[in-house]
Amino acid sequence: MSCNKMELPKEVSCIIKLLNERGHEAYAVGGAVRDTILGRSPEDWDVTTSALPDEIKSIFNRTVDTGIEHGTVTVLMKGKGYEVTTYRIDGEYLDSRHPRDVKFTRNLSEDLLRRDFTINAMAYNDRDGLVDEYGGEKDLEDGIIRCVGDPIKRFEEDALRMLRAVRFSAQLGFTIHPDTREAIIKLAPTIKNISCERIRDEILKLIESDNPGHIRELYNLGLTKYILQEFDEMMACEQNSKHHMYNVGEHTIHAMENIESDRVLRLTMLLHDMGKPSTKSQDEDGYDHFYNHQIVGAEMANKTLRSLKLDNDTRKKVVNLVRFHDERPVLKEKKVRKCIVETGLEAFPNIFAVKRADTLAQSMYKREEKLKYIDDFEAMYNDIVSKGQCLRIADMKISGKDLIEMGVRQGPDIGDILQELFEDVLNNPSHNEEQYLKEQAAKLLLKRKQHES
User: Fold this and answer.
1) Cross-strand bridge partners of residue 104
2) Three-state secondary structure call for residue 18
3) DSSP letters along 255-323, please?
4) Could you give the CA distance from residue 27 to residue 82 in angstroms, rounded to a whole number?
5) Which residues have a Cβ under 8 Å from the Cβ of 338 and sit 6 or more positions away?
6) How far is CA 440 from each of CA 403, 406, 418, 432, rounded to the nearest angstrom?
7) Quick one: DSSP state of residue 30?
């Protein structure tokens, strides 16, 4: 893995060259260097330099003061921005997140020392090669997440780094160094000082990684107690049932690992059984039951996603999938059509992926039978859709405008009549014909008039 020569993007090399020509040191730094050593393609490139912000701005034609108070200037080249930041020493941290002030320095070592993890504290340019004063390359080889210097100090400076440690371990498949782990356990309560938006972003990156099961690390390190307490309750909730072989939390982890890396789907599996601890009951034989856990869970998921300030579209999709993840209609077309309508078309076909992931995280009891049911359910759904059967009021061959032309004047009456016609069409797809629906609408309208008189 040793890196003697690194291929930098032309724009990054150009930025470093121009700074060097003006007598300043400059290096690519941080995540891009880490990812390049790992053979990954970095999304963003950052440059660190001995040049002061005003000196940076004097060298380049197009710049933006994106974080000038912290020494960061964005240099624009060919329509893309590259953050160029002056070497700095951070002042005292008062809120577990931001330094009260920063002091610029001309010393690269001092700048690298303030960074979070050794694997992110490496710098590179073509002249000097890799600058790795804190063992980052060795930690990459060993698959280790380790703080630069004293981990207690690093996490006291910025509590978000505790979540970042777990997130990097998930994204890279690395383990967290024992000293770093101990520091996280000790300082876990300080994560409360971090904004919900920052916490949300780290959780999303973790669960969307190739190792979503690393959320178990958040629990083991004591972080979920402060950012996702419901997960702690799930980890403490046993499931004495022939359908299960894990507690609710472990079942949740396995379900997340059984589904593709999609934000809505991974969030759904994380939250799908969060209603179980509060709905748990036990029968006379000692078996556990969780009646209506999906209804309670949907309400809890909605509250959790709101507290994390998830966007409304994602929140609504996840809550709906949680609410209906356990629905098992009788596999007859009429029943399936009604289930599709009740669940909402927007939940399909994702609901089938959710059901499979849920089933594969259960015990082997009737597993093949359960999976076959899901396959048959999906096949019937696909058949209904391929036939073009009406599944929404908007798809009926009659509209509110048609009813107005027929003499219906009250808005509620229009809605009620359309709903009655829709129920008819759901039961009998062949009834979705304009002439038939108008005839039925006329009968319903006449009936209403007679009732009113």
Assistant:
1) 88
2) helix
3) HHHTS-S-HHHHHHHHHTTTTHHHH-EE-TTS-EE-TTHHHHHHHHHHHHHHHTT--HHHHHHHHHHHH
4) 12
5) 329, 426
6) 11, 12, 10, 11
7) T
Pairing of strands 144-145, 175-176: parallel
pLDDT of residue 9: 94
Q: How many C-beta neighbours within 10 Å does residue 80 have?
A: 12
In degrees, to the nearest 5, what angle opens at C-alpha 328 toward C-alphas 327 and 332? Answer: 130
Instruction: Please give the model's pTM, rounded to 2 decimal places.
Output: 0.92
HSE on the CB side for 356, CA within 13 Å? 17
SS3 for 48? Answer: strand
Query: Given pLDDT bands bounded at 50, 70 and 90, which one contains residue 94?
Result: low
Give residue for tokens 């179980």: 276
DSSP string computed for 332-349: SHHHHHHHHHHH-GGGTT
Location of structure tokens 């020569």: 5
Summarize pLDDT for 27-67 with one digit per residue, the tens.
Answer: 999 999 999 999 999 989 999 999 999 999 999 999 999 88
Hey, what are 117's tokens?
Answer: 């993890």
pLDDT tens, residue by residue, 319-353: 999 999 999 999 999 999 999 999 999 999 999 99
Task: Output the CA–CA distances (angstroms, integers) from residue 329 to 189, 332, 357, 387, in the order listed.
Answer: 45, 8, 18, 20
User: Which residues neighbour 122 within 8 Å (Cβ) at sequence distance 6 or greater?
Assistant: 29, 30, 33, 34, 37, 112, 130, 131, 132, 136, 137
Q: Which of 288, 261, 268 is nearest to 277 (CA)?
A: 288
**What is the torsional sign of CA 414, 417, 419, 424?**
negative
Please give the Cα distance from 436 to 425 (Å, whole number). 10
Nearest to 76, CA basis, from 59, 101, 96: 59
Query: Is 304 a residue whose pLDDT tops 90?
Result: yes
CB 154 within 8 A of CB 161: yes
At 130, give phi and psi (nearest 5°).
-85, 125
Is residue 70 within 8 A of residue 102, CB to CB? The reply is: yes
Q: What is the mean pLDDT of residues 276-298?
A: 97
Cα torsion angle, 333, 335, 340, 341, sign:
positive
